[in-house]
Design goal:
Elements: H1 4-20, H2 27-42, H3 46-59, H4 64-76, H5 80-93, H6 98-110, H7 114-127, H8 132-144, H9 148-161, H10 166-178, H11 182-195, H12 200-212, H13 216-228, H14 233-244
Length: 246
Amino acid sequence: MDCRLYCKGIVLFVLFVAILSQQTGQAQAQSAERQGQAQAQQNPNWHDSLAVLNKQIASQKWSTDLHLRKAAVNLELQQWQYAIDEYGLVLQHEVQNPAALFYRAYAATHLRHYEAARRDYEELIGIFPTHTEARLSLAYVLQLMGRQTEALDQLNTLVEMRPDSAVPYASRAVLERELKQYEAALYDWEQAERLDGQNADYVASHVDLLLFLKRKKEGLQVLDKALKRGIPQGLLHSWYDHCRKP
């Protein structure tokens, strides 16, 4: 079984977590983002929401809250450059607004403006050194830029910062496999499974690497442990077949 599907899935999952779990130490920015998300959930017609927000922005004095809401709708509509412009306006008024920095980098990543995304993530980390999601996203962007060693440095730091979180270990395992650091990757998959024992994707990626290394017996042991932790057998059936093939 080709591991690329699983590696890609893990990377996308990591970015998904980074975006949806974005946390900052600034209550005002968090509140604005939550309000924007709540409005978006209540009104599924993004274009109507955008029209309303534009009218509100035109009729009022400067409001960071409104511009963050508008940018959030731009993201939902995949209007990446418009979102970047809105977050840029916010940053002109609040140069260290964490939500604007984080999501502007996210939009820039979609446009493959990796250097711009890197700068925003690094600036955010400079303000909040323990910002898990920003560092995770920075590592992702660095990988897209082909700067794997720097990405690995970020993930090493993240593992030290969050030794109780499975995502940094899983992220590092994916990169380590790419760098052919196989034993290190196996160790990280073990740690990810220890911390998130119900994640079948982690098990699949772990077993896939063992199969790549022609260590089928160890793969079966990983699968047996996963079953004992309560992962449904149906999710692991095909992996048992691969491990049992002569």
